[in-house]
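thread: overnight batch results

M.L. [08:02]
morning all. the overnight job finished for the chain we discussed friday. pasting input first so we're all looking at the same thing
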Amino acid sequence: MLLTTIDDAGTARVALDRPERHNAFDEALIAGLTETFLALGGDPAVRAVILSGNGKSFCAGADLGWMRRAAGWSEAENHADALKLSAMLHAIDTCPKPVIARVHGVVAGGGVGLVACADMAVAIEGAQFRLSEVRLGLTPATISPFVIAKIGTSQARRWFLTAEGFGAAEAERFGLTHETAIDASAADAVISNWLTHLHAAAPGAVADAKALVRNVAGRPVTDALRAMTATAISKRRANAEGQEGLAAFFEKRQPGWSR
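M.L. [08:03]
and the structure it wrote out:
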């Protein structure tokens, strides 16, 4: 279902490993992703997480067998099942470690949700995205908070409703991904560059910066928000990481966390 490794630099690689099913979700894969990202998020040795898919596709959304089973469940059973998918997406979205999605092939439904939960995403040319739920009489409800936060309301109002396919260039244009690579080697080079920058940054500061985006985005600039951001930076300046970073800067040396 999942292949997970962690190298000496603290980079965790999580690969969806259902290639015969185009890495489509079922109950076991959802549970595995939830458990894995919660564990990696709490592991002090991990500096970044790369999420990819083995085989021809990144993730084709819902497994047909899972959907067939769900069709026979009650509304209450479906609600409980949907909450598990939401919890998995939340675990990735709020993981305190930077999450990088390496995307190729088919990326449909919940697969788009995975990309939306990543902090950085690179798509290999030829990747085909689709929010296909309405063609099945469904809606992208569970993934919608994450996808809308990433691509915005205007784009969602088109792609949620038409279920059109779109390619890597369109995904980059409206912010679902950040880079488009000509092939797998080029995608790995993009990721390597991102990792270089991430390893130069303080891990605790990166986690706080990730949370800062989530806590500030979309909020009006009120006295309460300004007070919250002032508290955030004052804590950073006073903690051990902030002190080390400033000392290293003034002493013209590498900080202790740099690799």
